[in-house]
Structures are given as structure tokens and as C-alpha cells.
Write a structure and sequence with these properties.
By secondary structure, the chain is mainly alpha-helical. It is built from 7 helices and 2 strands. The chain has a two-stranded antiparallel sheet with strand order 1-2.
Length: about 160
């Protein structure tokens, strides 16, 4: 039985994929944490418990809204990653549920990713992605270019042989 860790050790593409996901998470976390800290400081709230709760709530909403609207958070845009459903369209409910681990941003996303790598299936998926049927992929691979073939008219066709 092969799991994501086996492939991660041998596959450069998978290593780059997870490195990009980690970097995107860090960019998003820094944005959310700085904004949350700034707002709470302006409101005069200094309790660390309040910061933990509000940063988790902010991160959850930030991710769910961004991924519902455009399939990407700013961190994913920067690293050219996009969330997509395996079948159909990424719904707001799917985006919200896949963002729930970010409420506890300091621990659960890592556990979610490690659990996804430990299991069978697509090694690019966190456990929550696998359960929901969503994945994160390179954004530029999701655009398919359509090349139109020129249509020949009846006048352009060679005469039929008798």
C-alpha cells in the first residue's frame, strides 16, 4: 500500500506542490493575523484568548469567502494554486467545511495535511479535501486552451471522383 509520504519522498512535483501549499498558507496566515491584531488593538482588546478566537474565526471566513468567490486565497493566487471540486463546482458549503481546520490555524491544518498524506488516494489532498471531494491544483493547468479548426465550406472541397 503506497501512501502520500512514499510518493513525497520520491516525486519532485509533489514536493513542489506541498511547498507551494505551505507557503500559501503562511502568506494567508500572516495577512489574517496582522489584520486581526491591528483591529483588536484599535478596539483596545489585548487578551490573548480573544486574539486566538478572533484570528481563527477571521481565518475561517477569509478562506471560505475567497475560495467560494474565486477558488483562491491571496496566498494561493501568489503561488498559482487553485481550489477545485473533483466533480462539479466548488460550493460555498464545500469551501466553508474545507476551511474549518483553519479555525485552529496553529495546529489542525498540519494534522489535516499529515492525515491526508498518510492515507491512500490523491497525495495532493488533505484529509478534509479527500472527504469533501476537493483538491488544490496548479492554477495554470486548470485552463484548457481550445483551438478551433477551420471549417471547410462546400466550395472549398475538392470535386468528388466518379
Amino acid at each position: 500500500m503506497t501512501n502520500g509520504f512514499d510518493l513525497l519522498g520520491r516525486t519532485r512535483v509533489l514536493q513542489v506542490h506541498w511547498l507551494k501549499r505551505i507557503c500559501a498558507f503562511i502568506v494567508d496566515a500572516v495577512l489574517v493575523l496582522l489584520l486581526t491584531w491591528a483591529v483588536l488593538t484599535m478596539l483596545g482588546v489585548t487578551a490573548m484568548v480573544m486574539f486566538g478566537l478572533m484570528s481563527g474565526f477571521s481565518f475561517l471566513l477569509y478562506s471560505a469567502i475567497s475560495e467560494t468567490a474565486v477558488g483562491q486565497t491571496p496566498g494561493k493566487v501568489l503561488l498559482r494554486l487553485k481550489v477545485r471540486a473533483e466533480r462539479g463546482k466548488l460550493t460555498p458549503a464545500m469551501a466553508f467545511v474545507r476551511s474549518v481546520p483553519k479555525f485552529f490555524w496553529y495546529l489542525f491544518p498540519m494534522i489535516d495535511a499529515l492525515a491526508g498524506l498518510a492515507g491512500e488516494g490523491d497525495p495532493r489532498q488533505r484529509l478534509s479535501d479527500r472527504i469533501l471531494g476537493s483538491t488544490v491544483a496548479q492554477a495554470h493547468y486548470l485552463r484548457v486552451k481550445v483551438h478551433r479548426l477551420p471549417v471547410k465550406k462546400e466550395a472549398d472541397k475538392p470535386p468528388a471522383k466518379a
